[in-house]
Design a protein that fits this description.
The structure is a homodimer. By secondary structure, chain A is an alpha/beta fold. Chain A folds into two domains: 3-67, Ribosomal Protein L25, Chain P; 76-235, Alpha/beta knot (3-Layer(aba) Sandwich). Chain A is 31% helix and 30% strand. Chain A contains seven helices and 13 strands. Chain A has helices at 19-27, 86-99, 119-133, 146-152, 173-177, 195-203, 218-231; strands spanning 3-5, 7-10, 13-17, 35-39, 44-53, 57-67, 76-80, 103-108, 140-145, 159-163, 171-172, 183-187, 207-210. Chain A has a seven-stranded parallel β-sheet, sandwiched between helices. The longest helix of chain A has 15 residues, at 119-133. Chain A is elongated, with a radius of gyration of 20 Å. The first copy, chain A, starts with a strand and ends in a 5-residue tail after the last helix. At the A-B interface, helix 2 and helix 7 of A face helix 2 and helix 7 of B.
Chain lengths: 236, 236
C-alpha cells in the first residue's frame, strides 16, 4: 500500500503539502476522484478520495480510516548526543525509524559537540523512512539536556539503560532487555559520558550496559542498541 | 592504542603506504626511532619502531607482536545484494565492520540492480572502520553469484539463513540464532529474492527468517541482522 503524508484539517478532510504533492499529481498522475492513502503519524491510515489538486496542495476527503497495528511491541526511546557530522545522525534517524522507534531524544551532554540540529530536515527524513518501511506511527523528536532527561526519568514506568565506555560493572545489552518492558537507552557523545553523568544516571535508576568490545561510533551504537532491542521484541 | 595499517614484507619488517603515511609522519610527527603500532588484518598488532620515512612510505621493524582476541564469538558472514546507490552499501560495510563481521559477500541475484562495486573504496572503508573500532581482524570481501554461493554452502559447517519478504513460514531471527554457531545470513535486493531463489536456498539447508514486520531497506536489513546476531553472541 503506497502511503503519503497528510495533515488533518477536520474529521473528514486531509490536505497534502510538500513533496508528496508532486508524487501524487505528477509521478502517479492522480486526478480528482482518484483514491489515495494518507497517514498523519497517529497510526491511522486514511483511505481518501482526492477533491482538489493545485501546484502546492492536494485536498482529500476521508472515506474510511484504519488503525494499524504497530510493527513492534514495547515502546523504545533512544537518547543520543548528536555528532557534528549531521549526515551520521540523519542516517541513524532514518535507520531506526525503519526498524521501529517511539521517541528520539537529542541530548546535550558535557562532552557533546556543538551542533545545530535541523529539525525540519530530521522531520522529512522521519516521514520518508516511515513511508519506506510502512511504519505509520511517527516517533516523537525531542531536544533536551542530559540532566533534564535524567530528572524526568521515572524508573517505575521505564527500563533505563546507559551505554558507556568507562570503568565499572556493565551487562551486555541483551540479557537486560529480556524483561520486555518499555525502555529508554542513552547513547553518549563520541567522547563518552563523563563519570559524573554516569553516576547521576545510575542514581536515577538507569542500568549500565555494554554494547560489546568494539568501540562503536555514536550512530553505530544507537543503531546497534535499537536493533538488538527490536530483535528480542518482535511481533510475528 | 592508536593503530595504523602496514604490509608485512618479512617476519621483521612492515611498510606503511597510503593515507596512514601522512597520519604518522605529519599528524603525529613521528620520526625514525619512534614507536608505532601496526596491523595487517590478521588479528596481530605489531609493536614496531620506525626505520625510514619518505613522502609515500614508512618502514618499520617489528619489536614484538601480539595476537589480539577477537571482539566477538562465532564467525558471521553477510551476503548482500548491493544497491545502485553505493553510499548505502558503503555505510553498511563501515557499520558492520565496526560491530564485527568475518566475511562480506556481494551477491548478484536475479533482481539485483546493476552495480559496479569499487573494491578499492570498500577496502579503504573497511580499514578505516577497523582502526576506528579497534577490530584487528579484517573481514574477507568476496563478489559472488547467488547460485555460486548456495552451491558452495555446507550446512554441516554453518547455520544459513535467508531473509525474504515472500510467503511461507519464517522464524524471527533471534530464536534461530540462539544456537550460537558460525553463521551466514543472506539479504536480498530491494526487489527481494525470487521464489525460485528462496526454494534453492531452502533445499541447500538455509532457514527462512523474518526481520520483523517493517519493510527494511537492503542496508538496514543487513545492519539489523548483524546487530541482532552480535547482540546475542557477545564476549564480555
Amino acid at each position: 500500500m503506497q502511503l503519503f503524508w497528510g495533515n488533518k484539517i477536520n474529521d473528514s478532510v486531509l490536505i497534502v503539502q510538500g513533496e508528496d504533492v508532486g508524487h501524487i499529481s505528477k509521478s502517479l498522475r492522480k486526478k480528482i476522484g482518484d483514491e489515495v492513502n494518507l497517514i498523519d503519524g497517529s497510526g491511522k491510515v486514511f483511505h481518501c478520495v482526492i477533491t482538489k489538486i493545485t501546484r502546492n496542495q492536494v485536498d482529500a476527503v476521508v472515506m474510511s480510516e484504519e488503525l494499524m497495528e504497530k510493527n513492534w511491541k514495547n515502546s523504545l526511546s533512544l537518547a543520543v548526543s548528536p555528532t557534528k557530522n549531521l549526515d551520521r545522525i540523519e542516517w541513524l534517524v532514518e535507520k531506526i525509524v525503519e526498524i521501529g522507534i517511539d521517541c528520539i531524544y537529542f541530548i546535550q551532554c558535557e562532552r557533546s559537540q556543538k551542533v545545530n540540529i535541523r529539525l525540519d530536515r530530521i522531520n522529512r527524513i522521519v516521514q520518508s523512512a516511515m513511508k519506506q518501511s510502512n511504519n505509520v506511527y511517527k516517533p516523537l523528536i525531542i531536544q533536551k539536556s542530559f540532566t533534564g532527561l535524567i530528572q524526568d526519568f521515572n524508573a517505575n514506568e521505564l527500563n533505563g539503560f546507559i551505554a558507556h565506555c568507562g570503568d565499572g560493572d556493565k551487562q551486555p545489552l541483551c540479557r537486560e532487555i529480556i524483561k520486555l518492558k518499555d525502555t529508554l537507552i542513552l547513547i553518549g557523545p563520541e567522547g563518552d559520558f563523563t563519570p559524573d553523568e554516569v553516576t547521576i544516571a545510575l542514581k536515577s535508576g538507569f542500568l549500565p550496559i555494554s554494547l560489546g568490545s568494539s568501540r562503536l561510533r555514536t550512530e553505530t551504537a544507537g543503531l546497534y542498541a535499537v536493533s538488538v532491542f527490536r530483535g528480542l521484541n518482535l511481533i510475528q
